[in-house]
Design goal:
This protein has one domain. The chain contains nine helices and twelve strands. Strand 10 and strand 11 form a beta hairpin. Helix 2 packs across helix 9.
């Protein structure tokens, strides 16, 4: 579940708009999920990390991962968002994989904007997701798309045959060239409450993402403000730790 783009034109990039087309977004999401699953296994070795992103019953709820603590404690359900706007070089742009750091976190408030204003807009994941937490993972990849294509093909074939993806994901992680990454975590209910108060008497910045048949709209929130004044919690760069664990 990844922010999407309007085609990646220069105007959209400069103003921190959406970051991906649907096809590229799905692939980057799979990369992010592979990294995050292993990170949480390292962070909490006695927890169970379950990937449910492609299960219809959880997809409808906006849930990608379930983090299950030991001893029957309440699990955490997670909605993963992957954003490629974390690159260190302001001049480097690899479409769908790496873009300059925007400094924003996006909250999709409208998933389908109705041009006929007599109709009601469909709310975005910020309001519809049933996950406990959002794990917003910034990941700037320096790989070219062709370098990653074989792994994506293997993942697709394994998924269709219900084969384990573990070895394929590990191979994918080893092949990644990461410019920079950062994980932002927040409780979704707390964020909704904070956003309602934050947005009062403020002019908000919005980013539209044009898809073939509809437009999504996200509010852009300064990442530093969200973490210093809101419920955002930063988990520092984690990719190198994950990659070293595979050696």
């Amino acid at each position: 579940m990844v922010p999407e783009d309007s085609g990646g034109d220069e105007e959209d990039i400069r103003h921190g708009g959406g970051v991906h087309k649907m096809a590229a977004a799905k692939k980057v999401e799979l990369v992010g999920l592979a990294i995050l699953k292993r990170f949480w296994q390292l962070e909490y070795p006695d927890w169970t990390v379950e990937d449910v992103h492609d299960r219809p019953d959880y997809f409808e709820k906006g849930i990608d991962l379930i983090l299950q603590p030991p001893r029957g404690e309440k699990p955490r359900t997670v909605d993963v968002k992957v954003d490629t706007y974390i690159g260190t070089d302001p001049n480097r742009r690899i479409k769908g994989l790496c873009n300059p750091n925007s400094g924003f976190t996006l909250m999709e408030t409208i998933s389908q904007l109705q041009f006929n204003r007599s109709k009601q807009d469909d709310p975005g994941w910020f309001y519809t997701s049933e996950a406990d937490e959002i794990h917003y993972y910034y990941l700037a990849l320096l790989n070219e798309a062709r370098e990653l294509k074989p792994c994506f093909t293997q993942m697709r074939d394994a998924s269709e045959s219900s084969t384990s993806l573990e070895s394929i994901e590990e191979s994918l992680i080893r092949s990644l060239k990461v410019d920079q990454d950062l994980l932002l975590i927040y409780d979704l209910k707390d964020a909704r409450k904070w956003f309602e108060e934050f947005s009062q008497n403020r002019t908000l910045a919005y980013a539209g993402a044009v898809n073939p048949t509809y437009v999504t709209v996200s509010v852009r929130i300064d990442r530093r403000v969200f973490c210093s004044q809101g419920p955002g919690r930063l988990k520092g760069p984690l990719f190198e730790r994950v990659k070293r664990s595979l050696d």
